[in-house]
């Protein structure tokens, strides 16, 4: 330690030590105090609205709790019941399909369009803004209602496909296809990840492309060997964010299926079923257990993405050339 | 495929050459086509709002056969005795409260995280980042129980109060990142001049934060305006209903006969979002780019 061997003369103050009487220790204490004043709202929120509720929710997940009675300890019964609960299992299947079809499609669209818009042409700003707009509108009840009508039996999509000779028998009333309107609705909002991709594309050094063209690399080769690896950290970021968000989708499924997740539970997203259990059936203990399973599933999937990311996410430039 | 072409960040190909011109035209064509597909649902909504209920289903063409502006007067009358303006006011109140709460509490916390040194900062910061990933559902039920015990269910407090406690970690993180990009010398100079951390925050940092606070404002407003689940949970009395809840009630109560007014109401509900978008679209896109925020 430098202080231990230093001669007993006043140490140079690390920063801003103009006032002679303010000793460092005292100063540090007052900084700590004022830091806590600044953080007070956040700290209260963290304890009262996040950490406390998390512990409570974990406790409630081992109880039978109906809001109006006091919680009764039931051990693992809630978790065990999940395995026999057909609707719970259905909601898992629906959600996994929604996440693992919707998120990759959305990111693919976002990346393709970002590449298209990543050039200095007139009007590019306008296109960027226009393609981003659905990301802001899409979360609303209004747009969910539009989707419900567009994909209704005999609605726009059904009739258009019918005139092309494709008769699927409707979307929102057909258990086989009812999830697709929800997936198209999330893909429609590809603008947000697109904008993040655009920011990533801007970071790729131009020299790499110049070197590649000197080496005579074609477009596909340049994309695979330069753009994609250089973009992989951003792709990774978007993927994690998208997975976490899609696992929690609620509004669109609630509105399109009129709150029930139908037909035949084909749009019963996990958070829809959780909401139903908690606030319609008042099975709050069971819903809490479901929330913890969701947390664990999201953590697991994220962890898997993190682990595999070592194979495909490249930081730095050495891999690109 | 033009879409997989590597992005040459070089200035646009010389427009004079015929090949460059053709390529630019093709590019615009593709972009316009994507734009039309993306904005078609919005156009559909606009035209449906002036169609009659039966025509919305039967007529695929965007041009209405019978122009029905009466849908809008019907929509403004509202649902079960509550006028649209009332719901508009309710939504506005919640969004305004959310904006003020987020701006105040998140910038306070962000300043401490970005500039002040104190014990436990690393742990606190990790907790804050952790909440970014935490699914809402884990805290949903206990929060509901808390607000129920406090007698606040049915009021706007459960929707606004948490925003004053910096619960939206997104914005804390956004502002932290922004403060880190500000030159540290500025607040050091203020401290040398005898300012305490409070005055430094208020007179030096706060004015510089404007761009980050504008981004926070825009997203806070739009997100809370569109928000649905918390309102569904906490509001029961139709007098307190927001536009989103009113819109859903409208659907439940009037069935397919009132499709026209329902879409008129949808359009009116989206107006503030669209206005915000048009006013701030440049900032919005930049805000997302710098922070990784989702729309």
Automatic annotation (TrEMBL), chain A:
Subcellular location: Cell membrane
Membrane topology: Multi-pass membrane protein
Sequence ranges assigned to domain ABC transmembrane type-1 in this UniProt record: 92-305
Chain residue ranges for the region called Disordered: 1-26
Major localization listed first in the record, in broad terms: membrane
Protein name from the UniProt record: Sugar ABC transporter permease
Organism: Streptomyces phaeolivaceus
Family: Belongs to the binding-protein-dependent transport system permease family.
Pfam families documented for this protein: BPD_transp_1
Transmembrane segments: 33-55, 88-117, 129-147, 178-201, 222-241, 284-306
Gene Ontology CC entries for this record: plasma membrane
The entry's keywords: Cell membrane, Membrane, Transmembrane, Transmembrane helix, Transport
Gene Ontology biological process: transmembrane transport
CDD domains per UniProt: TM_PBP2
SUPFAM superfamilies listed in its UniProt record: MalF N-terminal region-like, MetI-like
Database matches in InterPro entries: ABC_transporter_permease, MetI-like, MetI-like_sf
């Amino acid at each position: 330690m430098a202080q231990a061997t230093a001669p007993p003369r006043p140490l140079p103050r690390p920063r801003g030590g103009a006032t002679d009487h303010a000793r460092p220790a005292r100063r540090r204490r007052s900084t700590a105090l004022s830091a806590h004043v600044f953080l007070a709202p956040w700290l209260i929120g963290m304890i009262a609205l996040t950490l406390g509720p998390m512990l409570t929710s974990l406790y409630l997940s081992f109880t039978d709790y109906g809001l109006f009675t006091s919680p009764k300890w039931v051990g693992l019964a809630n978790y065990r019941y999940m395995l026999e609960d057909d609707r719970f299992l259905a909601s898992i299947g629906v959600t996994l399909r929604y996440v693992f079809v919707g998120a990759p499609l959305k990111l693919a669209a976002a990346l393709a369009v970002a590449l298209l818009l990543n050039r200095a042409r007139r009007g590019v700003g306008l296109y960027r803004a226009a393609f981003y707009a659905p990301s802001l509108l899409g979360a609303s009840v209004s747009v969910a209602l539009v989707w419900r009508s567009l994909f209704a039996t005999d609605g726009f999509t059904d009739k258009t496909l019918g005139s092309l000779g494709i008769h699927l028998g409707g979307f929102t009333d057909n258990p086989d296809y009812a999830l697709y309107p929800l997936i198209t609705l999330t893909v429609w909002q590809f603008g947000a990840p697109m904008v993040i991709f655009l920011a990533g594309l801007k970071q790729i050094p131009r020299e790499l492309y110049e070197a590649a063209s000197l080496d005579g690399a074609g477009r596909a080769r340049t994309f695979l060997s330069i753009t994609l690896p250089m973009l992989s950290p951003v792709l990774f970021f978007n993927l994690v964010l998208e997975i976490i968000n899609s696992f929690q989708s609620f509004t669109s499924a609630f509105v399109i299926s009129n709150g029930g997740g139908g037909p035949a539970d084909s749009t019963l997203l996990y958070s829809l079923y959780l909401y139903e259990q908690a606030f319609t059936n008042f099975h709050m203990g069971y819903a809490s257990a479901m929330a913890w399973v969701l947390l664990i599933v999201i953590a697991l999937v994220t962890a898997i993405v993190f682990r595999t990311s070592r194979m495909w996410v490249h930081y730095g430039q050495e891999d690109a050339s | 495929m033009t879409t997989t072409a590597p992005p040459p960040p070089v200035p646009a190909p010389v427009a004079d050459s015929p090949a460059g011109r053709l390529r630019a035209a093709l590019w615009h064509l593709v972009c316009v086509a994507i734009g039309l597909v993306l904005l078609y649902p919005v156009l559909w909504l606009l035209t449906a709002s002036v169609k009659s209920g039966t025509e919305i289903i039967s007529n695929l063409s965007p041009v209405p056969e019978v122009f029905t502006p009466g849908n809008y007067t019907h929509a403004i009358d509202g649902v079960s005795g509550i006028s649209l303006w009332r719901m508009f006011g309710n939504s506005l109140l919640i969004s305004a409260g959310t904006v003020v709460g987020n701006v105040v509490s998140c910038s306070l916390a962000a300043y401490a995280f970005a500039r002040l040194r104190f014990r436990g900062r690393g742990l606190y910061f990790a907790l804050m980042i952790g909440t970014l990933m935490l699914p809402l559902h884990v805290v949903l039920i206990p929060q509901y129980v808390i607000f129920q015990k406090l007698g606040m269910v049915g009021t706007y407090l459960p929707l606004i109060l948490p925003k004053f406690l910096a619960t939206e970690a997104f914005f804390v993180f956004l502002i932290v990142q922004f403060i880190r990009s500000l030159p540290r010398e500025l607040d050091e100079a203020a401290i040398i001049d005898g300012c305490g951390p409070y005055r430094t925050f208020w007179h030096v940092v706060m004015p510089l934060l404007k761009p980050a606070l504008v981004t926070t404002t825009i997203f806070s407003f739009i997100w809370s305006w569109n928000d649905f689940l918390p309102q569904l949970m906490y509001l029961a009395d139709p007098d307190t209903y927001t536009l989103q809840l009113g819109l859903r009630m409208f659907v439940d109560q009037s069935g397919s006969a009132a499709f026209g007014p329902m879409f008129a109401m949808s359009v009116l509900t989206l107006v503030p979002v669209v206005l915000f978008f048009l006013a701030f679209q440049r900032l919005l896109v930049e805000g997302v780019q710098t922070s990784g925020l989702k729309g």
